């Protein structure tokens, strides 16, 4: 259930460099070396895309060429200063987006709490029962392993993760997931299906675990508890 953001990739063997006129240069991908070089470029490109990092691909290619030729056009201190400036601009942009996202979540949960059938807990967790199981058996303890089906969305309905769509239940120790889940599932019994509404504080907070989940997002989950394996 935890979503881990990919770490930065180190060295890039950039195979598809752009020409000076901005047009893509046709590059051979026939040999093993060609394919490995392309794969390295593909991996780091996916990483940039996943983390939504703004990058000048032409400049990356030029830096690679200069390094291979044993030359360097910009001093390290200039590169470092520019890196810090880009980082600061991105952080400021993210702060503004996070503040707006937080306010949307607070407003949504305040209205949602007024709906009939929604129960709120001291932590801010809100839930409503969709289907009730037999009511028999114990609820899971934090150290138990649970098997669940779930469907996760943002408050606007955008799906970011779903074991239902994958047609594969998820299984994990209950104390290894976000605290809103740990709390809610301890209230459920096998066969129960609930809808959970989690404020950011008991979801992922200010840290975005994935580009699909903006920082400070309130989240909505439909969760069905399928099985409990006692620790």
Describe this structure in words.
This protein has 231 residues and is α+β, with helices and mostly antiparallel strands. The protein is built from 5 helices and 7 strands, in the order αααββββαβαββ. Strands 1, 2, 3, 4, 5, 6 and 7 form a 7-stranded antiparallel beta sheet that branches. β1 and β2 (126-131) form a beta hairpin. The longest helix is centred in the middle third of the chain and has 37 residues, at 76-112. The two termini are 19 Å apart.
Q: Quick summary of this structure?
A:
With 231 residues, the protein is of the alpha+beta class. The protein has helices spanning 32-50, 57-69, 76-112, 163-166, 179-185, and strands at residues 119-120, 126-131, 145-154, 159-162, 170-173, 193-198, 219-229.
């Amino acid at each position: 259930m935890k979503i881990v953001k990919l770490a930065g990739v180190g060295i890039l063997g950039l195979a598809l460099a752009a020409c000076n006129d901005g047009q893509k240069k046709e590059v051979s991908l026939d040999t093993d070396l060609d394919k490995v070089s392309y794969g390295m470029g593909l991996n780091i490109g996916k990483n940039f895309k996943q983390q939504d990092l703004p990058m000048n691909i032409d400049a990356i290619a030029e830096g690679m060429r200069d390094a291979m030729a044993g030359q360097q056009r910009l001093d390290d201190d200039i590169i470092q200063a520019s890196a810090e400036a880009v980082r600061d601009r991105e952080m400021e942009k993210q702060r503004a987006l996070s503040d707006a996202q937080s306010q949307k979540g607070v407003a949504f949960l305040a209205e949602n709490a007024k709906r009939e059938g929604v129960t709120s807990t001291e932590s801010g967790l809100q839930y409503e029962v969709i289907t009730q199981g037999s009511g028999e058996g114990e609820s899971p303890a934090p150290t138990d392993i649970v098997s669940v089906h779930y469907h996760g969305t943002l408050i606007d309905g955008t799906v970011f993760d779903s074991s239902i769509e994958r047609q594969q239940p998820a299984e994990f120790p209950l104390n290894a997931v976000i605290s809103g889940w740990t709390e809610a599932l301890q209230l459920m019994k096998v066969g129960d299906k609930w809808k959970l509404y989690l404020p950011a504080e008991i979801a992922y907070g200010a840290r975005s675990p994935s580009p699909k989940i903006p920082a400070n997002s309130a989240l909505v989950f439909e969760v069905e508890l399928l099985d409990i394996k006692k620790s």
